[in-house]
Amino acid sequence: MSLQGKTAFITGGGKNLGALVASQLAAEGANIAIHYHGASTTKAAGSLQIFANVLEDFGKLDIVVNTVGMVLKKPLVDISEQDYDSMFAVNSKSAFFITQEAAKAVEDGGKIVNIVTALLAAYTGYYTAYQGSKGPVEWFTKGLSKEFMSRGLLDLYAQETEDSIAYLKSGAIDGRLTKIEDIGH
């Protein structure tokens, strides 16, 4: 697929998954804007400024991939109020403001992608605050798919592969994924 002439903005694009996404989109020919650190995406004004800068520098925006996130692996009883507030500010609040500004900036037919986490589907201990803070992103992204449907902006579903299913099962109790019937028991 060629992305020649398209402009992609990757939040959290300086390392890890964001850097890989940026590299792949660049290899496909996209012009790349990266947010790594600086203006806070946890404030509406920070996200507004970031998008204003990208539009000033590139003139248009076709793709936004939000990979901003902060992971915390800690027992529930050791999670402080500050830990909780930080996790929700970075993982939920920033994703909301990034998506809000992306919806204003991305042209119809463009794409807005919010990266959540496979841990939402796994049954894994010690990531309580992380999983809890990423859950709202999944739900508001699903809701926005209806709001933005006529504009063709959101792609929600990643392809499930045998590897991804095996990974999720490896972290699950009894080595299997939860079935709907399990919830009532």
From TrEMBL:
<comment type="similarity">
    <text>Belongs to the short-chain dehydrogenases/reductases (SDR) family.</text>
</comment>
<keyword id="KW-0560">Oxidoreductase</keyword>
<dbReference type="InterPro" id="IPR036291">
    <property type="entry name" value="NAD(P)-bd_dom_sf"/>
</dbReference>
<dbReference type="Pfam" id="PF13561">
    <property type="entry name" value="adh_short_C2"/>
</dbReference>
<protein>
    <recommendedName>
        <fullName>Short-chain dehydrogenase</fullName>
    </recommendedName>
</protein>
<dbReference type="InterPro" id="IPR002347">
    <property type="entry name" value="SDR_fam"/>
</dbReference>
<dbReference type="GO" id="GO:0016614">
    <property type="term" value="F:oxidoreductase activity, acting on CH-OH group of donors"/>
</dbReference>
